[in-house]
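Ops channel
N.P.: pipeline sanity check, posting one input/output pair.
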């Protein structure tokens, strides 16, 4: 069979398995690993051109880590906040230490146990962002904390990728280590100078042509990776640094969007190759170890994160939902294990173990994140130990309000401004302490509270309210709000937010007067503007100036969308 035919069959199988994973609402990474099992030695035995797949895998890893680095903008790093640093570092340390201990108890040697402990300490940036974005929680408190500690973990990953060449070196002399650090320092200094002095001007020139920009970024990412490899470091560390050096470019989002399909294609080969290399001849040893380590990831990681966040004063639901986002290992975990295998530190059993743990934890955490609200309602009576008394709570006011706004961030801001202009007496209910403190600083009445807590909702006063607005895009929570509000005040106008048509139809059926659908509302507003203004460029320019002023105001108060 020719390499072309072999590759075509492999892609066809990958597409078919991915369709099944999509129907099961599972991350496609699981499907790619299963594809490797199907086409590998265990079943169809289609993979003969291993060298080609290995090359494609390395390209995929380089592009993946390049894009990770591209999003590590210095401004984002400054915005991590204490909670992201504490949770990110705390969870990595806990999982590394406990994972090392479990691996030793399971009979692994010291070096493989170290690899397993460190590799399994990282959570999947891609999977978590995809899941919480699909759920509409990217702007929630737990969503922003999750994004923060994922970026912290990415920074730790950079350090590990730099240290791996030292660990894999046969020469551990002081001179060799010092020389390696010296080379690394010189490379980092050179990259910093280039990113500050050369890249801004070069980026402007390249951005004039989308095709040239696309080719330049690929050449830059792979070229810097190759330089780092030649200098004795991994291509992974070079790809990360190459991405970071371009993170300040205004065109970085365009670069990211164009490279993402390329990343998705080549990274498929990495996971297919991993799946094809799984060895089940020693399954009696691998399976118990996989179950024990998966339990650490699925149960231990959420528990340690809930403990940390509870000690810092966060509510138990926020702690639980944030904890669920670390209940899987990441692509980086598998990359570290693959590197250990490549340099001879690990055997095939460890690679198979890591791949199996990846399958179990990614599968399990998908449902944990997706159904976190339901799981919380089941576990809520048992979670009080993870919450300090009156965590971030403010006293419930006795004052009666004409309007209640649930959620005071991006969508809520527009209602706040309108109600202020109308001199309405209103209060904002939000469970993000940062939003609460910001609004209080402007003299706005704010109540910290969780709208999914039925006891809290029942404690509010609805009798004097003329209108209730919920900007929370969760159909169940909005259903609770609307039902309780109408039970106390049948004349109140209720407005809610939904991201899906089926949710909007459900809420309309329950009696809501209007459902905000942000995805459709923006285009409808623009169409209404065109209908009203038509071709009057002067009016468009006036509106543009007004819109720019509003956008700058929103950016100044942190409404820059991720």
């Amino acid at each position: 069979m020719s390499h072309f035919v072999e590759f075509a069959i492999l892609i066809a199988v990958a597409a078919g398995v991915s369709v099944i994973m999509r129907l099961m609402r599972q991350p496609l990474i699981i499907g790619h690993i299963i594809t490797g099992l199907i086409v590998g030695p265990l079943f169809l035995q289609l993979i003969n051109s291993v060298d080609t797949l290995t090359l494609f895998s390395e390209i995929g890893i380089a592009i993946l880590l390049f894009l990770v680095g591209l999003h590590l903008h210095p401004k984002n790093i400054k915005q991590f906040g204490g909670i992201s640093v504490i949770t990110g570092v705390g969870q990595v340390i806990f999982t590394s230490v406990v994972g090392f201990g479990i691996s030793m108890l399971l009979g692994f040697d010291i070096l493989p146990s170290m690899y397993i402990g460190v590799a399994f300490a990282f959570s999947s940036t891609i999977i978590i962002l995809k899941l919480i974005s699909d759920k509409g929680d990217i702007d929630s408190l737990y969503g922003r904390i999750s994004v923060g500690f994922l970026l912290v973990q990415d920074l730790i990953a950079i350090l590990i990728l730099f240290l791996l060449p030292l660990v894999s070196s046969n020469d551990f002399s002081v001179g060799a280590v010092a020389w390696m650090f010296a080379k690394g320092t010189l490379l980092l200094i050179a990259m910093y100078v280039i990113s500050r002095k050369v890249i801004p001007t070069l980026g402007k020139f390249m951005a004039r042509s989308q095709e040239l920009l696309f080719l330049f970024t690929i050449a830059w990412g792979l070229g810097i990776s190759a330089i780092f490899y030649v200098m004795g470091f991994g291509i992974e560390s070079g790809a990360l640094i190459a991405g970071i050096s371009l993170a300040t470019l205004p065109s970085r989002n365009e670069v990211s969007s164009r490279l993402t399909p390329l990343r998705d294609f080549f990274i498929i080969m990495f996971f297919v190759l991993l799946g094809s290399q799984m060895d089940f001849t020693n399954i009696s040893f691998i399976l118990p170890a996989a179950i024990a380590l998966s339990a650490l990831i699925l149960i231990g990681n959420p528990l340690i994160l809930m403990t940390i966040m509870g000690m810092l004063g966060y509510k138990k639901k926020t702690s639980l939902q944030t904890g669920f986002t670390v209940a899987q290992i990441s692509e980086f975990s598998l990359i570290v294990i693959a590197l250990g295998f490549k340099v001879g530190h690990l055997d095939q059993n460890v690679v198979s173990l890591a791949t199996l743990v990846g399958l179990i934890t990614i599968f399990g955490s998908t449902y944990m994140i997706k159904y976190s609200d339901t799981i919380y309602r089941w576990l809520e009576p048992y979670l009080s130990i993870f919450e300090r008394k009156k965590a971030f709570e403010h006293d419930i006011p006795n004052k009666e309000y004409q309007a209640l706004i649930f959620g005071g961030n991006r969508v809520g801001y527009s209602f706040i401004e309108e109600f202020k202009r109308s001199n309405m007496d209103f209060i904002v209910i939000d469970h993000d302490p940062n939003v609460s403190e910001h609004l209080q600083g402007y003299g706005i009445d704010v109540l910290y509270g969780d709208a999914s807590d039925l006891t809290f909702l029942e404690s509010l006063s609805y009798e004097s309210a003329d209108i209730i607005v919920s900007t929370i895009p969760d159909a169940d929570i909005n259903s609770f709000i609307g039902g309780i509000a109408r039970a106390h005040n049948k004349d109140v106008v209720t407005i809610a937010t939904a991201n899906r048509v089926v949710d909007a139809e459900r809420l309309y059926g329950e009696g809501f007067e209007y459902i905000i659908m942000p995805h459709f509302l923006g285009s409808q507003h623009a169409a209404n503007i065109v209908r009203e203004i038509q071709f009057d460029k002067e009016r468009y320019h006036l509106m543009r100036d007004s819109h720019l002023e509003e956008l700058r105001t929103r950016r100044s108060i942190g409404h820059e969308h991720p």
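N.P.: looks fine end to end. The CA atoms of residues 548 and 554 lie 10 Å apart.
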